[in-house]
Amino acid sequence: MRRKFFFIPAMIVLTFAVVFAQQPSAGSTSVDRLKQTVSYLASDALEGRRTGTPGANEAANYIAREFRRLGLRAAVQPAPPHTDAS
Q1: Which of 10, 49, 72, 78 could pair covalently with 56 via S-S, beta carbons 3.0-4.6 A apart?
Q2: Is the model's pLDDT at 21 over the cut of 70?
Q3: Is 65 exposed, middle or buried (0-12, 13-18, 19+ CB in 10 A)?
Q4: Distance set, CA 61 to CA 7, 23, 41 (Å)
């Protein structure tokens, strides 16, 4: 009899966990959004993204904006530029 009282609530909790785990969250990225991002980063507008070109700088800025939008931060902050006091 004790097993029955444990089994029924456990099955209910498990059912809810499975149902809610399969629901897409409000912040999840859609396939269309991913395609849009990849298409932009691979587009001719960014001129091949060769180092030091405006296209590479725009790609870096775009990625930085997306990271900020998602609330991502760098794990390690870059060191400040070295200034020579000589």
Answers
A1: 49
A2: no
A3: exposed
A4: 54, 32, 11
